[in-house]
Amino acid sequence: MFRVKICGITNVGDGIACAEAGADALGFNFCAASPRCLTLELASEICESLPLEVARVGVFVNESVERIRLVAEILRLDWVQLHGDEPPEAIVQMGSYSPGIADGHRVVSSEPVPCSQRSFRVLRAFRQLDPEFQSVLAYLDKCQRLGALPDAVLVDAYQVGAYGGTGKTVNWSTASRLSRKLAALDDGQATVQKSDGVRDPAPPCNSVELATPGLAQPLSMALAGGLRPDNVAEAIRIVRPAAVDTASGVETSPGRKDARLVREFVERARYAFGRLLSDSDTCSV
C-alpha cells in the first residue's frame, strides 16, 4: 500500500510537484460537488505526466459502479476510493470477492469480474460518524458476509453536508484503536508483512490487540482529516496508520497545492513512518 497520498490534484503542475516531493499516491476527485473536482480529460493529462511508480487514486462519491469502472479503465487507476454512502454491495459489483488483488488484465464489463482480472484496488473511506467507529466495523462485517472486503480502509472526519476535504481532524485515540483492530498479528509479532512486500507499522510494544473479530484478513488503514505538515508526525505516532492522506492541509486554496507545504508534509510523514519501523524492529529484538 502507498504511504503518503496527496489528494485533490487539479492541475499538471501540482501533480508533478507532489510526485517530485516524494508523494507515492495522488488523488483525483470526481465528486461534482467538490471544489477539487476535475474532468476526466484533465485527469488523464495529469496522469500521463506522472512517473509510473506514483499510484493513481480516483475518489468517487455515490457514483455508479459502471462509471467508476469506466473511469478506472481510462485512467488506469491503481486504486478506487469510495468516499460516499456506497453500500457493501457496491464492492461486490466491482468484483471485490476477496481482500487484495493480483495483477491482471484491465477490463471493463457490465458484470463483476474476478479479482485476478480487476485492475484496481478498492479503498473504502469512512467518516467518523460515531466515537468508536462501530459503524465501520459493522460495515466491514457485512462486506465479509457478502464475500467482498475492500482492500484497505481510510478514516476521515465528519462534517454535515461534506464528504471530505474539510480540514477537520478525527479523534486520533479512537482511530488508533481502530487501526489496531484492523491490523493482523503474525503469531504475536509486532510487524505485519503484506502481500506486496511492504511492511506496515504495527501496534507499539505491550499494546497489541487482536484483529477485529470476524474479519478473515487484516486491513490496512489510511488516516485523513485535517493533516498538515505541523501535525502529521504526531498523528502517525499516535494512530500508527499504514498511510496518511491530505488535501486542504497543503493548499493555498481548494485544489491549489503549495509546493513547500507538500515537501514538508511528505518529509515529516516519511520520517515519522521511519520511526515507527525502527520502534517495531526494537520490539521484535
Structure overview:
It is a single chain. The chain is α/β, with parallel strands linked by helices. It has a single domain (4-284), classed as Aldolase class I (TIM Barrel, Alpha-Beta Barrel), CATH 3.20.20.70. 33% of the residues lie in helices and 16% in strands. It contains eight helices and twelve strands. It has helices at residues 12-21, 40-49, 65-75, 88-93, 134-145, 172-182, 232-239, 259-284; strands at residues 4-6, 25-29, 55-60, 79-82, 121-127, 152-156, 192-193, 199-200, 220-223, 243-246, 251-253, 256-257. It has an eight-stranded parallel barrel with strand order 1-2-3-4-5-6-9-10, surrounded by five helices. It has a two-stranded antiparallel sheet with strand order 7-8. It has a two-stranded antiparallel ribbon with strand order 11-12. Helix 2 links the parallel strand 2 (25-29) and strand 3. The chain is globular, with a radius of gyration of 18 Å. 47% of the residues are buried. The model is unreliable at 96-116 and 185-211 (pLDDT under 50).
Short overview:
β4, α4 and β5 form a beta-alpha-beta unit. 33% of the residues lie in helices and 16% in strands.
Rounded mean pLDDT score: 82
Largest beta-sheet characterization: 8 strands, parallel, barrel
Distance between the termini: 25 Å
CATH class designation: Alpha Beta
Tell me the radius of gyration.
18 Å
- What's the domain count? 1
CATH architecture: Alpha-Beta Barrel
Determine the structural class based on helices, strands and strand pairing.
Answer: alpha/beta
**Beta-strand content estimate:** 15-25%
Strands, total number: 12
Shape: globular
Number of DSSP helices?
8
CATH fold title:
TIM Barrel
The helix content is 25-40%
Q: Residue ranges: pLDDT <50 for 5 or more in a row? A: 96-116, 185-211
CATH superfamily: Aldolase class I
Q: For the largest sheet, list the strands in their spatial order.
A: 1-2-3-4-5-6-9-10
Secondary-structure element sequence?
EHEHEHEHEHEHEEEHEEEH
